[in-house]
Design a protein that fits this description.
The protein contains 17 helices and no strands. It is mostly helical.
């Protein structure tokens, strides 16, 4: 029970990090600890979100051991249905809030992950490593060869692009969270789920691995690319959404072709191998740290129950903060705040809502609807 509570806590932290990016103060207006919090949230929160999405897939498909037979086919059907629902929901939200919405990308990740559901932790880890090493370079080459005319031709025949800002090409290659590079995070989360996180020895090895990946990737990037290697576009008072749209190899770089030397950087959402490896390391440290805390400090687990409740209904919390932004008239993903008040109020509101709702219902509102949508999977034999 403790390890799942720890994952829920990590998921809540990922949601709060996305709140900080979308409605928190810009980095240039923060100081001291606030600057570190703002910088860490930029990029790492969405990566943690994606890593935990991979973890969640294995909760459906069989965490330690993959489900087989009818149960395995039903789990595959449930994931496929979830993928379609999230793709549809993400497309609807993108019509209003633009390409910063991650849910449609989730739908693609889930579909691409279906062939990997029965792999072992070792095979998944090797796959994630291979993707991290190869896909950034592939994304760079593909984006460099993708002309505006080709993009427009593809978009002209894309039904998703006709109704929203996010089309098939965006989902796979040029969007804010392109599958070509972001599948590394999802597969890493799947590998993490295959391990026994309740074992102290496993947690120690994972903590060492996470620290090594983080220090190694960012340290080597700094050595090769210089002092600006970890620079965030948020330093210029721009949101991560703007950064993703104009600067990343996997995020719309067909409009601003980057020099090959930028493949050595590791800034938030740069989409490079160093960024992916370092961000996975951070995600591992957060998951392991949250799990260890929940297991070893029962009193803290009780005190954190309202926050953990947010993690159990992260889909509702994520969509809800965009709805609140609409009510307040704040553009999605384009924070120009200089105060922490809006994000602190949003976090407090999410905690209060989740704490009250969890006392009355087993699942969050959107989680219940998503679960109901997957009910037809029981007829798969």
């Amino acid at each position: 029970m403790g390890r799942l509570v720890g994952v829920d806590l990590a998921r809540a932290l990922a949601v709060f990090g996305m709140y900080i990016v979308h409605i928190g103060p810009v980095l240039s207006s923060t100081h001291g600890v606030g600057s570190w919090v703002r910088y860490l949230a930029d990029g790492h929160s969405s990566v943690l979100f994606a890593t935990l999405a991979g973890f969640s897939l294995m909760l459906i498909a069989g965490r330690r051991e993959p489900k087989t037979g009818p149960a395995g086919r039903q789990a595959t059907a449930r994931i496929a249905i979830r993928a379609v629902v999230l793709l549809a929901l993400g497309t609807v939200l993108a019509m209003e809030y633009g390409g910063v919405i991650i849910l449609g990308f989730y739908g693609v990740y889930f579909l691409l992950a279906l062939p990997l559901l029965r792999l072992s932790a070792k095979a998944l880890a090797i796959t994630a490593a291979g993707l991290a090493l190869a896909t950034p370079q592939l994304a760079f080459v593909l984006n460099s060869r993708l002309s505006e005319s080709v993009r427009q031709t593809v978009d002209a025949y894309d039904p998703l692009k006709k109704v929203s800002e996010v089309g098939v090409l965006d989902l796979l290659l040029t969007g804010f969270y392109p599958a070509i590079t972001w599948m590394s995070f999802v597969v890493a989360g799947m590998a993490l789920a295959r391990l026994d996180l309740s074992a102290a020895s496993v947690r120690r090895r994972l903590a060492a691995l996470g620290a090594a990946l983080t220090a190694g990737a960012y340290g080597l990037s700094l050595l090769l690319a210089g002092e600006d290697a970890l620079r965030s576009m948020a330093e210029e008072a721009k949101s991560s959404a703007v950064f993703e749209k104009t600067s990343s190899f996997g995020s719309g770089s067909f409009t601003t072709h980057r020099p090959a030397s930028d493949l050595l950087s590791a800034g938030p959402h740069s989409g490079t191998t160093f960024d992916i490896v370092g961000s996975v390391g951070v995600a591992i440290l957060v998951v392991v740290g949250a799990t260890a805390l929940m297991d070893r400090v029962p009193r803290l687990r009780r005190l954190a129950k309202p926050v953990i409740a947010v993690g159990t209904m992260s889909l509702t919390a994520y969509v809800g903060h965009f709805l609140v932004q609409s009510v307040l008239g704040v553009p999605a993903g384009e924070s120009t705040q200089v105060s922490w008040s809006p994000v602190l109020m949003s976090i407090l509101g999410a905690i209060v809502f989740a704490a009250v709702w969890s006392r009355l219902f087993r699942r969050g509102p959107l989680e219940a609807l998503l679960n109901a949508a997957t009910k037809p999977a029981v007829y798969v034999r």
